[in-house]
Design goal:
The protein is an alpha/beta fold and about 250 residues long. It has helices at about 10-30, 50-60, 75-85, 100-110, 140-145, 180-190, 205-210, 235-250, and strands at about 40-45, 70-75, 90-95, 115-120, 125-130, 140, 150, 175-180, 195-200, 210-215, 220-230.
């Protein structure tokens, strides 16, 4: 008659229970819909490529679906392959070079995936237009040595050959900044005069942000950039549109 007061543990239990009930309602709603009622879905996993983000935003912009659920994962090669193999993503985008071709070929075969090449490109240095080296058309390893090299973090269990930078046998930077995202890369370029060694594709968003690419003397081993999918699996309509957007941006490049 005088009421009760929940303990702190009771409040946590009530919050957790409410979340479970909301999740149950959402699941029931999703799977009780007919195919026509379900949102159009698509997911892609990719290495840290700005041109893939450009293609993804182009897909979202062009979509005429009234209900959609699109997702993009930016990650490393092992995750890209795992996501596609486990059906978490329909398409993955990565690069294959002489340094990792044997390893990735085995991984693709083991996972039942196939690689579709988009473009062959030499590795270049990416830096901000405000960088002291931006005025030079061709850079050398000596030019780059005083500046921090940006690398994307690999999982502890992943082999180091999956770093794009490890394709450069003649050069390993002494100053390294290891990051996890594209936004951090731009910040290091602008504020720390850092540079990134990667495929020669410079995207629309790269240019808009003031990023430029420069050839590096001695880097003449091309890499193949392409997308992977499950072997023999037909692509959904959004996936086909996404591949068209990827091809369009590669043609422009």
């Amino acid at each position: 008659a005088s009421g009760i007061t929940l303990t702190a543990e009771g409040k946590r239990l009530l919050d957790a229970g409410n979340r479970l009930l909301r999740d149950a309602d959402h699941i029931a709603d999703q799977f009780s819909r007919t195919a026509l009622d379900r949102p159009e879905s698509f997911c892609v996993s990719s290495l840290h490529y700005s041109f893939v983000v450009d293609a993804f935003t182009e897909l979202v912009r062009r979509s005429k679906s009234s209900s959609q659920h699109y997702k993009i994962h930016i990650c490393q090669s092992p995750d890209v392959l795992q996501h596609v193999a486990n059906l978490e993503s329909e398409i993955g985008v990565l690069s294959v070079g002489d340094h990792n071709q044997d390893y990735l070929t085995r991984m693709l075969e083991r996972s039942g995936l196939e690689f579709h090449q988009l473009i062959r490109s030499n590795i270049c240095a990416f830096l901000h237009e405000s960088h002291p080296l931006a005025e030079k058309a061709i850079l050398t390893f000596s030019d780059l040595a005083p500046y921090p090299c940006i690398m994307y973090e690999l999982d502890m269990d992943s082999p180091s050959i999956l770093h794009e930078e490890f394709s450069i046998s003649a050069f390993y930077p002494k100053r390294v900044v290891e990051i996890t995202g594209l936004y951090q890369s731009l910040e290091v370029m602008v504020r720390c005069q850092g540079y990134d060694l990667g495929n020669g594709i410079i995207s629309v968003s790269n240019k808009r942000q003031g990023v430029v690419k420069r050839r590096v003397e001695g880097l003449d081993a091309p890499v193949s950039i392409g997308w992977v999918s499950r072997r023999g699996q037909a692509l959904s309509a959004p996936a086909l549109e996404f591949v068209k957007a990827l091809e369009m941006y590669c043609r422009d490049i």
